[in-house]
């Protein structure tokens, strides 16, 4: 698993507040998780010695789960995942995060850990969708390897992968335009570009791309264009089950396939023309030579 | 800066072998691939000029070995899911021009070019071997083997170049 790791700049206060608050709720004891990151504690933070009750186990959220503490990152992941449920109602906002925190038995102050424009929530969602897509493509690949499924032609594969990924937006489609604009904020561009490019790379990898020349870039650029334009079309699509969007996608992928075959046709035509010219040049020079010798 | 600037680790699942230092391996494979690609083009340029001379067969032989090297790095690139350098079109032209240009200076020129290039490539491979040994010789055994073999091949080319440089 390749992770983009951002060094934690965690303010100790936030987790301390959570610890104290959750003490009150007696639900989510945070034992010394902060001690792992920092040497000094603010006065007044009392790390708990014993966790109360059984520790819930988290699966598939990344990070280390050892002994009986939960890393800050894992906690953040949990809160954001819980917050997704409230996005259709509240949008990608601190309110949704606060509601999510409440369902986990944490204080609404937990939303203070995150930016007020919902950046982390959106990036978390995108990252989760990409992970789901990779798992889906991995599963399909295994089926093909085991001979239980037919290998799809490239255009069909790309179409299906992009459709599968875009369908994950459907529950949040009302609020997705807002998310797109947040993803374009300069602060978020490195992360969102990174997520986008690794998703596109994943799709090509499972589609069987093995190019080691400039095609590597061309293919990814083309697919990124297809993905982005289809996403925008989807935002404005009101047809039943987004059939207009999938038709648009179908056409764009077909265009791309045509383009690449046209490009190779142009290249072979070009080569043929060059050969013709070389032949003509040799003929002319031979004619000159023989005339000079006469 | 908003209060509590959160920072999350955003994971994208990439099928990389577990436990390898992806950024280091990425760089190594990308640079080596570019290098072998460039070397290929250099020899192609030299062959275009000196192909029919007495050193033609020698250059051809060294070129063939470089083609094998490039093939190997193509395979490694796919296996480790490394992206190729974006400067490939540039190395395509620059390598050919360097090869043809040095060949136009005559056989000595071509051999001198070979000696210089192979020397710096061997140095470069040696540095990479050192880096990988410092990281974890066991984990990177296969890659180390490949690089060591290629380094020896390049040193051979270097010595061949010296031989013919001195003779011619």
UniProtKB/TrEMBL annotation, chain A:
Residues 72-102 form the Ubiquinone biosynthesis protein COQ9 HTH domain. Membrane-associated protein that warps the membrane surface to access and bind aromatic isoprenes with high specificity, including ubiquinone (CoQ) isoprene intermediates and presents them directly to Coq7, therefore facilitating the Coq7-mediated hydroxylase step. Participates in the biosynthesis of coenzyme Q, also named ubiquinone, an essential lipid-soluble electron transporter for aerobic cellular respiration. Coiled coil: none annotated. GO terms for molecular function: lipid binding. Pathway: Cofactor biosynthesis; ubiquinone biosynthesis. This is Ubiquinone biosynthesis protein. Residues 189-259 form the COQ9 C-terminal domain. It comes from Climacteris rufus. Pfam families: COQ9, COQ9_N. One of its GO terms (biological process) is ubiquinone biosynthetic process.
From TrEMBL, chain B:
Pathway: Cofactor biosynthesis; ubiquinone biosynthesis. It holds the Pfam family COQ7. It comes from the Eukaryota. GO terms for molecular function: 3-demethoxyubiquinol 3-hydroxylase activity; metal ion binding. The keyword Membrane applies. One of its GO terms (cellular component) is mitochondrial inner membrane. The keyword Oxidoreductase applies. Keywords: Iron, Membrane, Metal-binding, Monooxygenase, Oxidoreductase, Ubiquinone biosynthesis. One of its GO terms (biological process) is determination of adult lifespan. This is COQ7 protein. It comes from Climacteris rufus. The gene is Coq7.
């Amino acid at each position: 698993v390749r992770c983009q790791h951002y060094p934690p700049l965690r303010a100790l206060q936030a987790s301390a507040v959570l610890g104290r608050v959750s003490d009150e709720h007696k639900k989510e004891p945070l034992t010394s998780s902060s001690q792992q990151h920092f040497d000094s504690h603010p006065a007044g933070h009392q790390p708990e010695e014993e966790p109360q009750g059984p520790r819930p186990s988290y699966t598939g959220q990344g990070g280390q789960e050892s002994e009986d503490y939960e890393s800050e990152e894992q906690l953040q992941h949990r809160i954001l995942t819980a917050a997704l449920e409230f996005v259709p109602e509240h949008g990608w906002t601190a309110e949704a995060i606060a509601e999510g925190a409440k369902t986990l038995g944490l204080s609404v102050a937990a939303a203070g850990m995150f930016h007020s424009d919902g950046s982390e929530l959106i990036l978390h969602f995108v990252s989760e969708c990409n992970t789901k897509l990779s798992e889906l493509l991995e599963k399909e690949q295994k089926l093909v390897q085991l001979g239980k499924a037919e290998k799809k032609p490239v255009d069909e594969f790309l179409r299906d992968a992009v459709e599968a990924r875009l369908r994950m937006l459907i529950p949040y489609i009302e609020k997705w335009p807002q998310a797109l604009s947040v993803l374009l904020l300069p602060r978020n561009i490195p992360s969102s570009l990174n997520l986008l490019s690794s998703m596109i790379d994943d799709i090509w990898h499972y589609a069987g791309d093995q190019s080691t020349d400039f095609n590597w870039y061309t293919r990814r650029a083309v697919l990124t264009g297809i993905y982005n334009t289809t996403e925008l079309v989807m935002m404005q699509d009101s047809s039943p089950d987004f059939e207009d969007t999938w038709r648009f996608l179908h056409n764009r992928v077909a265009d791309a396939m045509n383009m690449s075959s046209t490009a190779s046709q142009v290249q072979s035509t070009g080569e043929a023309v060059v050969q013709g010219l070389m032949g003509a040049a040799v003929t002319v020079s031979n004619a000159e030579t023989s005339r000079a010798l006469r | 800066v908003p209060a509590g600037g959160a920072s999350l680790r955003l994971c994208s699942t990439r099928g990389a072998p577990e436990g390898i230092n992806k950024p280091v391996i990425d760089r190594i494979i990308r640079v080596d691939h570019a290098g072998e690609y460039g070397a290929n083009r250099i020899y192609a340029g030299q062959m275009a000029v000196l192909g029919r001379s007495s050193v033609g067969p020698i250059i051809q032989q060294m070129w063939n070995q470089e083609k094998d090297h490039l093939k190997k790095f193509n395979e490694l690139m796919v296996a480790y899911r490394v992206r190729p350098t974006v400067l490939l079109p540039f190395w395509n032209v620059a390598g050919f021009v360097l090869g043809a240009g040095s060949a136009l200076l005559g056989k000595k020129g071509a051999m001198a070019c070979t000696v210089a290039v192979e020397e710096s490539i061997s140095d470069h491979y040696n540095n990479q071997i050192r880096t990988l040994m410092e990281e974890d010789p066991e984990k990177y055994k296969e890659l180390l083997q490949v690089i060591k073999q290629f380094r020896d091949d390049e040193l051979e080319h270097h010595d061949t170049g010296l031989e013919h440089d001195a003779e011619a």
